[in-house]
Amino acid sequence: MAVNPYLLSTTEHGADVTDLSDLARLLRQLRRRQARQRGASELTYRELAARTGWSIGTIAGYFGGRTLPPTNRLDVLAALLEATPAELGVLATARDHVQEGRRPVTSAAGPGRWPVPRQLPGENFHFVGRETELATLDALLDRAGPPAIAVLLTGTAGAGKTALAVKWAHRNASRFPHGQLHVNLGGFDPDGPPVAAARVVRDVAAAFGVPGDRIPAGPDAQIGLYRSVLAGRRVLMILDNARDADQVRPLLPGSPGCLTIVTSRNQLTSLVAVDGAHHLVVDLPAADEARQLLAHRLGPARARAEPTVVDELVSQCARLPLAMVIAAARANARPNFPIAVLAEELRLAHGSLDLFSGDDAPADLRVAFACSYRQLTPSAATLFRHVGNHPAPDVDVDTAADLAEAAPAHVRPVLAELTRAHLLTEHRPGRYACHDLLRAFAREQANR
């Protein structure tokens, strides 16, 4: 195999690897390249052993092509040798090829091959903005030190959590050569209960070619199989639409080569506190980014023709991405009408959500809000309705206590529940608010 001795920068190098000696050659090239860049001698096996805690013989086995390093150890070596993210992808692909060539015939996919599932939803080419959030996710993947194993994306209904996760996953799919999976956990679906972990385990095992008769019946054994299937692999998994941490926790892979992105309308604080997930709140986009999203959906010519109307629509949609997408779809259904017609219709609706309804649940704002509302305790649902009818733009604890006719000490945990569910936002210390469309929904529920 011919390998550039100065830089490993293309996935072709990884794909060209056929045996363990080729992978070892890549590691040695990185070691030499690091020494040249630093103007120093190459790190010795003794120095590498001291930094990793592994034996000198183990290090020599990796660099001499006698031993295949596990995925997590390859990551450590790559970090010590200052490999770039692209080079890390080359090494991962190379290791994949070596392991596949040595794997026994066990999968349902046929002799000598394990399937590589590519189950991401189709890429949304209308996606715009969210560059800060995308960069944050990139940084978590590229950071030095222990790799991120789980990232939690939370935000209110319709904020675009799934769209962000899928966009980032498509951008970085090549970094996960053993597969990319997407599972809708159904935590806030209007029909049916959340998806049980046992079903996810079976589906993931099947995706990797495990025959159905090899999947054990007991839940603990199933989770053990699930983690064994993912061990030593570099897999990206999106666990979408999670209701709570208990639904997610059994599905977190134990392998540091895997990355799981969890999306939820709930904060799932215990995933951060107990499982070490990195939490990223997907907030409403800033006004400029919201305008960019709506203009992209309307089409640049229409947006340029009526710029003030675009601004008005952004405000009427409360900068909520799902609302803007629905509004743009309504406008685009009448391409010969000025978009000012839609803005006027929204004004005449006087805060009703009727114009934000669609043909099915995913395109219906009222349904999206209702799925969150139904998960509230009775006291939280009552306070949410009161806040929607309150004329002030926000409330403090004392005002909320007056609305609920309860003591402030009893209201604080209720406000915390609404905040965890992203139905209220504590936008300043001790002051709580929600966007105009959520207020409209709260008023609807109060007036039923």
From TrEMBL:
Superkingdom classification of source: Bacteria
An MF annotation (GO) of this entry: DNA binding
InterPro entries, sorted: Cro/C1-type_HTH, Lambda_DNA-bd_dom_sf, P-loop_NTPase
UniProt cross-references to SUPFAM superfamilies, sorted A to Z: lambda repressor-like DNA-binding domains, P-loop containing nucleoside triphosphate hydrolases
Boundaries of every HTH cro/C1-type domain copy: 43-88
SMART domains given in the database record: HTH_XRE (SM00530)
PANTHER family: HTH-TYPE TRANSCRIPTIONAL REGULATOR RV0890C-RELATED (PTHR47691:SF3), REGULATOR-RELATED (PTHR47691)
Name of the protein: HTH cro/C1-type domain-containing protein
Organism: Polymorphospora rubra
Lineage, broadest ranks: Bacteria, Bacillati, Actinomycetota, Actinomycetes, Micromonosporales
